[in-house]
Amino acid sequence: MDLDAVRTFVTAAETGRLQDAATTLSVTQQAVSKRVAALEKELAVRLFTRTPRGVRLTIDGQAFLPHARALLDTAERAMASVRPGSRALRVDVIGRRLGPAALLRGFHRACPEVELDVVTLFDAKEALAAIRSGTIDASFRAVTVPARRLPDGIDAVTVPARRLPDGIDAARVHDEPVQLLTGPRHALATARAVTPAQLAGHRIWMPGLVAGTEWASYYDEFATEFGLTIEATGPDFGTDPLLDTIADSPQLATLVGEQTRMVWPTDQDLRRITLRDPVPVYPHSLIWRSDNPHPALARLRTYLDGAGPRHPHAETWAPHWAR
């Protein structure tokens, strides 16, 4: 049903004159007459009786009027639901305990009036697909591009992160330091800080690494750079079983982001140990569609420009695709 015709009918019913309806709608009286006639033809009833003084609703017109008003109200609500700024900003944070979730919580505290819809998608490939399809507005990711094979026998390399699909923008918004997590009997448990190179020879266990993901790409290059072996063996049963194993082991340790939220029983006595010289940082970027008009997206980007802690006086390390 033509909503312009329905709106014209309602306006004519309220004003009682086609000319007055035309003035209200900023169209000609001829356009009003054509719209009403088309609607009457579609409904197969007469909606108005023409009189010297204007128009008067027929019985069918009186029956149709409340439904026509309800139809216009529904259409307005439908349009308002997707009008820029009227719906929640939908953002993917990878995991609710991880650093990006902390960044988004900070934004919510700074801008509590902005409605947020927080989701967690699996990897960058899924997040990019969701951004391109419009099912989310933005995602926090370490932006990588899968390795490609170069000609003439040259080894495969990871191409720069800036090579994103057309229409997708990204900005690096936060470098999160990576820390060592050990149990109380681990050889490094009493250290206040260690270098990444000192981890060589120690068993680093990260069962959550999944080949092909951006975080696996990060830790693969980290291990290669500093001569480490990172084990991803065994099923990933989640955070609590991982902490139980680390707490009881004198050999196993794991790596976590500085802002990753973890709570453990006091008797586990787990230790977060700073890594430095250099400080390995996980490079979080915000990704979004270039043509996304949501005003809260611009506010989030402005907030992130100055929100994340920097490390101006520390030597840092990041993968070559994030430099």
Structural features, described:
The chain is α/β, with parallel strands linked by helices. Helices cover 37% and strands 20% of the residues. It contains 9 helices and 13 strands. It has helices at residues 3-15, 18-25, 29-43, 59-82, 99-110, 124-133, 214-226, 239-248, 295-307, and strands spanning 48-51, 54-57, 89-92, 116-119, 138-141, 168-182, 193-194, 203-205, 230-231, 252-257, 271-275, 279-289, 316-317. The strands form 2 sheets. Strands 3, 4, 5, 6, 7, 8, 9, 10, 11, 12 and 13 form an 11-stranded mixed sheet that branches. The chain has a two-stranded antiparallel sheet with strand order 1-2. α1 (3-15) packs across α2. The longest helix has 24 residues, at 59-82. The chain is elongated. The two termini are 56 Å apart. Mean pLDDT is 88; it is low at 145-162.
